[in-house]
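Table 4 source record.
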Amino acid sequence: MNKSIIFFIVILAGFLTAGVLVSGRGQNSASAQAGMSEASDKSEMASNEVTIDNFSFTPQTLTIPAGSTVKWTNKDDVPHTVVETNSHKFKSKALDTDETFSYTFTDPGTYEYFCSVHPKMVAKVIVQQKQ
């Protein structure tokens, strides 16, 4: 009886392996190119993101073209805020874990910001003129 169970498992594994190999052949170059395009779009989006974790903003300095939107995500276990230092041009509410705040930068310049709950947390966004 044990030999028949082992034989069944080996046959089943063979069918599953063959199914996986056959399903992989259906990809064409258009779908591969679409996947590459999606990846580059995600990469561009990720470059305009700031992570709040371990009581710091990462990256500390973010350089973007004017008209870009930056998204901050709190990955820390405690609330944080995002507040522009000089004129409070942008100011988030207290962000709990996994909450986000976004701001679109229209004017070139350097925007320093901090966490009003933990003022030693500082970073900046450098906005360059569109070319």
